[in-house]
């Protein structure tokens, strides 16, 4: 019985390492795309950013976090940014827009 548990632990460690590498590759890909400037397409940026978000959720799940707890923490951070008048909110109102988006999704 212990062998099955050891296999599960090793499988989880392996997938966590794979997710970390994929996340790093996606972030690097986004940085390269932004740096190149010329060939930036919204579709390429959308693909990379959505992949980063997806991988982050999956990594959180493998590390023992629920999707709901991640969402709640993001919402808390949005609210904190609004209270503290984060620079991105002052200049662009992005946090207010994101807060409204989260509220309408429910």
UniProtKB/TrEMBL annotation:
It comes from the Bacteria. Pfam families: MazG-like. InterPro entries: DCTPP. GO terms for biological process: nucleoside triphosphate catabolic process. One of its GO terms (molecular function) is nucleoside triphosphate diphosphatase activity. This is MazG-like family protein.
């Amino acid at each position: 019985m212990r062998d099955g548990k050891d296999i599960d632990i090793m499988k989880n460690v392996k997938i966590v390492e794979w997710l970390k590498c994929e996340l790093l590759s996606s972030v690097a890909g986004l940085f390269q795309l932004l740096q190149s400037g010329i060939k930036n397409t919204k579709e390429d940026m959308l693909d990379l950013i959505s992949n980063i978000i997806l991988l982050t959720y999956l990594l959180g799940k493998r590390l023992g976090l629920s999707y709901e707890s991640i969402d709640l923490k993001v919402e808390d951070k949005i609210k904190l940014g609004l209270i503290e008048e984060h620079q991105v909110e002052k200049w662009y109102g992005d946090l207010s827009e994101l807060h409204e988006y989260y509220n309408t999704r429910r």
